[in-house]
Amino acid sequence: MSSASPAAAPDVTNPDVVLVVDFGAQYAQLIARRVREARVYSEIVPSTMPVQEMLARKPAAIILSGGPSSVYAEGAPRLDRALFEAGVPVFGMCYGFQLMAQTLGGTVDNSGAREYGRTDLHVSKSGSTLFEGTPAEQQVWMSHGDACSAAPEGFTVTASTGVVPVAAFENDEKKLYGVQHHPEVMHSTYGQQVLEHFLYRGAGIEPTWTTGNVIEEQVAAIREQVGDKRAICGLSGGVDSAVAAALVQKAIGSQLTCVYVDHGLMRKGETEQVEKDFVAATGVSLKVVDAEQRFLDALAGVSDPEEKRKIIGREFIRVFEQAQAEIVAEAAGEHGEQPVQFLVQGTLYPDVVESGGGTGTANIKSHHNVGGLPEDLEFELIEPLRKLFKDEVRMVGQELGLPEEIVQRQPFPGPGLGIRIVGEVTKERLDLLREADAIAREELTAAGLDRDIWQCPVVLLADVRSVGVQGDGRTYGHPIVLRPVSSEDAMTADWTRMPYDVLAKISTRITNEVADVNRVVLDVTSKPPGTIEWE
Ligand code: XMP
């Protein structure tokens, strides 16, 4: 018997994995998403991975991402030439393109005066593998100071710009392709088409990957992993834990028990959605812990945001651990010792990549471990979403028949409305904020804006009062802040330019319907400098 650790299980339903080699910056994740949008499975690997290891995965193609380095800089990431000689189709973008050019004997200049941002690309060979069916003049997005001035031998130059003579090159015989721009960003008008041309025409990959494959694959893998043991899952009301739980439920049915801690800081209707609609849709066995009073007591008299976060986090872990222990004890009565061996977590692919786990080797256990584990009990993790992006998780949820309100839910912070009240958290204030938030959500949905807005925190400035007039009387009420933001990943955000009439309707309804609120204000700050949440 060999003592070596077992190799990763083969991807039975997705033999066509495309590896995206990450040269830094934030492009690799976007490229991987775009490849999957083209219905081809992709994974990100670090540029430090030895080429032999990449090839050992037998990828259907390899994409080299952009990155901030210059190929001339000392310590800049390099690539073993063997990558281009293995017969695997390769597509280089931006830095990946320059590296490919340099490695194969072309010339890369770093004279500086290059294009950034929106640029006009001139396609000089219209029927080429990459550009067929796209216009001779098209807008692309550039983001690098270096550029290629001479293509390597054997390559045909297929596009240029006003200042860059070699903005794309192709070698059909060797199946090697490259572009100076970023096809993965929205501002490259035909970017997705160019990427798909590489995948389908250049690399000959069939677009067959779907989230349906993921469900089948995961259900089989979870059954195999869990056997006849039992699993437990904490539900937060958010998309990730709901979809992870539904997937595990599909695989092992009543061997799974879910726990939902109702901390009283949820928005209107959300607890009921989990208690009724989620259970109805999945048939999951759910333990709901009503801990509202416990959280209110712990938060009484506390206004400091950091202090509030700490209290909510601490109480959450205590309540969750207690519920876990109860479930384990109950199951032990019925099923013998150590009956619950698995803990389900809704870890997503960006968490895995960002914690250095893109290779599948890093340990990310602590990353999402919100519940904390009892010390005397060791759980193995089940993370059925760890290869998926958020939008794919939503698709899986939809296919599993989860309620639309859960699947399409916008991001909501773990500490809930507790951090959307500026000031002390009390039951009255929570109820008031719940009403205002429900009105805003209702009107945004009615106006069809849910998909345009990343999230719209509604905030109560509980420590602020101002004078107003309503009916015949003077009022002295609180302001409500609307914080609609547009974002791709919450790292940066801009305030959403929402239609005035929708804002007007929300404002009128909130001031009419929510007692003690006499003003609605709009937050017009981007992130940075503001954060998305007020606290
Ligand atoms: P900020 O306010 O830092 O928020 O711009 C960025 C994103 O993170 C969410 N957020 C949280 N999510 N637990 C969470 O699960 C938290 O404590 C938390 N705080 C902020 C926020 O809603 C936004 O999407």
UniProtKB/TrEMBL annotation:
The lineage of its organism: Bacteria, Bacillati, Actinomycetota, Actinomycetes, Kitasatosporales. Its EC number is 6.3.5.2. GO terms for molecular function: ATP binding; GMP synthase activity. Homodimer. Keywords: ATP-binding, Glutamine amidotransferase, GMP biosynthesis, Ligase, Nucleotide-binding, Purine biosynthesis. PROSITE patterns: GATASE_TYPE_1, GMPS_ATP_PPASE. InterPro entries: Class_I_gatase-like, GATASE, GMP_synth_C, GMP_synth_GATase, GMP_synthase, GMPS_ATP_PPase_dom, NAD/GMP_synthase, Rossmann-like_a/b/a_fold. The gene is guaA. It is an enzyme of class 6 (ligase). Residues 209-409 form the GMPS ATP-PPase domain. NCBIfam families: guaA_Cterm, guaA_Nterm, PRK00074.1. The keyword NAD does not apply. Catalyzes the synthesis of GMP from XMP. ATP binds at residues 236-242. It catalyses: XMP + L-glutamine + ATP + H2O = GMP + L-glutamate + AMP + diphosphate + 2 H(+). GO terms for cellular component: cytosol. Pathway: Purine metabolism; GMP biosynthesis; GMP from XMP (L-Gln route): step 1/1. This is GMP synthase [glutamine-hydrolyzing]. The active site is at 94 (nucleophile), 182, 184.
